[in-house]
Amino acid sequence: MSRFITRFLPRFLQGPEGMLILMAFAMAISLQGWFALLNNFVVERANFTGKEIGFLQSIREIPGFLSFAAVLLLPFIREQNLAFLSLFLLGIGTALTGYFPTELGLYLTTLLMSTGFHYYETMNQSLTLQMIEKKRAPIHLATQLKAASIGTFFIFIVIIAFFNDSAFVRIQENLGIAEPLTGLNLGYVPIYVFAGAVTAVIAVFCKIYYPFYEAAEVQTKSLFLRRRYWLYYALTFMGGARRQIFMVFAGFLMVEKFGYDATAITLLFMVNLIANIWIAPYIGRFIVKMGERRALILEYVGLICVFGSYAVVEDASFAAFLYIVDHLFFAFSMAIKTYFQKIADPKDIASTAGVSFTINHIAAVGIPAAFGYLYLEDEGLVFLLGAGMAVISLILALLVPRDPEAGNETVLTRPGPGAVQPAE
Q1: How far from 211 is each of 19, 132, 206, 219, CA to CA, in Å?
Q2: In a designed cystine with 145, which of 24, 193, 280, 420 is the match (CB 3.0 to 4.6 A)?
Q3: 3 state SS of 87
Q4: What are the phi and psi torsion angles at 134 (to 5°)?
Q5: 8 A C-beta contact, residue 228 and residue 422
Q6: What is d(CA 149, CA 101) in angstroms, rounded to the nearest whole number?
Q7: Under a CB-based contact definition with an 8 Å cutoff, are residues 19 and 210 in contact?
Q8: pLDDT tens digits, residue range 265-311?
Q9: Which residues are CB-contacts of 193 (< 8 A; sequence separation ≥ 6)?
């Protein structure tokens, strides 16, 4: 069976790199399908108000905040199997969503879906940094991003074609489709089932087809914080804060200030996907050639300009341009992962992946609520504070060495000749 599949499976999907790429594609189908329909579904089928949707989004973030617990499962299950299981749970949680249009039902399916997603992401980062050579890691991470973008684009096309919502009909019209597909109204349940089933089937396929790939180092199966990783922790925390500014407030600005409807926002997101598909590989090559330090400096200088422009923008077209550029800068964040790969003790990767996801989600707990009050008073102030965060990130990026490695984690701790690698 395995030999038969290998004959027909493209070469780029074979081996550990192919496994990781295929899982990235599968993850995006469920996650983005879930997000794309969520707001309409909870309002139309479950009669959610702002209170319930806010609580649901808080529940969605809980597994991310508890990602460190993934390492506690490693004595009982291999990382690769935990990744497959987590991807399967993501698919099942998504597939079940449409069947439970109640407050409690949506909270439970969201918790299941989010647990699968966050534990998959934790294991994916760990497996990637262990299995992929340091010189190839940026290019491979860019390929994963491209695969996820293709998966997202695929499920969006399915929704546009088979979900007869007025907003999606307008998307088809804006895409130049002379006769929009209005007779293929499958509704929420079949699309949620389709998205989840594709992900779950790919997870099962990966478990059956791909052999166990042995990592070079046995992973530490306990939780810890190492002093010499402090810069990685700081960059990860600031990256989580930056993510909230984009996800919560940039999109809201487009709607609240410039009147972009669901159609326009979806089209913008599809432009972002297409741009990622083509540009992500070039960003990966840029990181390989120029190094993590320069990539991060470029990202944060760009974000200072983007966030500063958000604060004063008055033109809807320029705001859309900022939104697209802002999204593209996310690809540069892979440099934080490859920086850690270069400085880390190989046996620390799995545990630190879990801890880093928790650190990344700390900002998700406080920033949306706190900055939401500020947004009511002065929307520009929120983005000026975002620019300030980018300045802090830039300062941290300047501490990344040109050639990071164990014992040379920051420009402040550059070792002299014959220096001994510290344990902590």
Answers
A1: 10, 16, 9, 19
A2: 280
A3: helix
A4: -60, -40
A5: yes
A6: 28
A7: yes
A8: 777 888 888 888 889 899 999 999 999 999 999 999 999 999 999 99
A9: 95, 98
Give the residue among 325, 270, 307, 305 at the shortest CA–CA distance from 385.
307
Tokens 């990744």 sit on residue: 83
Q: Are 162 and 180 in contact (CB under 8 A)?
A: no
Nearby residues of 199 by Cβ (< 8 Å), 6 or more positions away: 26, 27, 29, 30, 87, 88, 90, 91, 94
Residue with structure tokens 């935990």? 82
CA distance 329 to 324: 9
* Number of DSSP helices (H) and strands (E) in the chain, helices first: 16, 0
- How are the residues of the chain apportioned to helix, strand and coil, as percentages rounded to the nearest 5? 75, 0, 20
Helices (H), 291-333: 292-312, 316-328
pTM confidence score: 0.85
Q: Which residue in this structure is represented by tokens 């790199």? A: 17
Q: Which of 25, 324, 35 is nearest to 147 (CA)?
A: 25
Backbone dihedral angles phi then psi of residue 419, each to the nearest 5 degrees: -65, 145
pLDDT-based confidence at 420, cuts 50/70/90? very low
Q: Residue 329 and residue 27: Cα distance in Å, rounded? A: 21
Cβ 78 vs Cβ 88: under 8 Å: no
CB atoms < 10 A from the CB of 222, how many? 10
Nearest residue to 339 (alpha-carbon basis) of 349, 347, 330: 349
Structure tokens belonging to residue 179: 């006769």
